[in-house]
Predict the 3D structure of the following.
Amino acid sequence: MAETITLEITEDKLNELTWEQWEIFDNGSSASYRDTREIVAMFVSGMDQPTALVMLGKLKTPQMKSILEQFVTKVNELREVNPTTGDG
């Protein structure tokens, strides 16, 4: 793949997700890869969401796993810094 995909995950961008979108990441949820790709596409740096959807859709399995791992890692990092649970 000629173009590198970089995710830009910020608290402000995460705050744009809807409740329904967050439910996709629940443990035990039966989220489709399509739903997940639509959300991840919101965070691709330097391209609009429709273009990002196409680019993400062309990734091979190892590349897809890498992008998903980056996404989950960054979301978890932001949650640790600014937890949304109301505890503490």
User: Anything to note?
Assistant: The mean pLDDT is 84. The CA atoms of residues 6 and 46 lie 8 Å apart. The chain has five helices and no strands.
